[in-house]
Amino acid sequence: MALISSMARAKRVPEPRRYGGGGGGAVGVPRRRRRPGALALTEIRRFQRSTELLIRKLPFARLVRRCASLSVGPSQCCRCACLTFTCVCVHALQVRQVTQEYDPTKDYRWKADALLALQEMAEAYLVGLFEDTNLCAIHAKRVTIFVKDIQLARRIRGGTDIAG
């Protein structure tokens, strides 16, 4: 056993890298091209089968926290219905009191279930909106959706639309 372990082993010399060859793979074998739209159809089938969330959780949570921190506070500074934090009017004392209670630097805590519920609702809303948008595009004898299709779908939805 000692004789085998003391034997010299052949050193493997690494081959020098070849630059500019692009890709690897077999030489002379052309890659098979997919038809236009085939990848889109496979993605559609894959997303229709799956139930996981499509928007990543951390960026969505950051967006929710940012929107919540921007929207908390006085929406109307006083009875005159102006939408600023500083108002020169009769109710300036009341405005000063409300703005002193509001702290824009304070970070509010969110439960994970609350963020998950908001994300589920947002994705369900977007899926429904894109379904209606696709129907609008098909009605216009097109297969590509445009911004005007989204606007029409939101207008048809009327009062049930969130941003509507």
Return the CATH architecture of the domain at 109-164: Orthogonal Bundle
Number of helices: 6
CATH class of the domain at 109-164: Mainly Alpha
Summarize the amount of helix as a percent range: 40-55%
The largest pleated sheet is described as: none
Topology pattern, helix = H, strand = E: HHHHHH
Q: Report the radius of gyration as a whole number of Å.
A: 30 Å
Beta-strand residue fraction: under 5%
Structural class: mainly alpha
> How many beta strands in the DSSP annotation?
0
Distance between the termini: 82 Å
The CATH topology assignment of the domain at 109-164 is Histone, subunit A
Q: Give the overall form.
A: flat
CATH superfamily of the domain at 109-164: Histone, subunit A
Q: How would you state the average pLDDT, rounded?
A: 77
- Name the poorly predicted regions: 81-96
Please give a structural write-up.
- This protein is mainly α.
- Among the domains are: 76-105, no CATH class; 109-164, Histone, subunit A (Orthogonal Bundle), CATH 1.10.20.10.
- 49% of the residues lie in helices and 0% in strands.
- It is built from six helices and no strands.
- α5 packs across α6 (147-157).
- The radius of gyration is 30 Å and the shape is flat.
- The chain starts with a helix and ends in a 7-residue tail after the last helix.
- The model is unreliable at 81-96 (pLDDT under 50).
Main attributes of the structure:
Histone, subunit A, 164 residues, mainly alpha, 6 helices
Give a summary of the structure in a few sentences.
The protein is mainly α. Helices cover 49% and strands 0% of the residues. Among the domains are: 76-105, no CATH class; 109-164, Histone, subunit A.
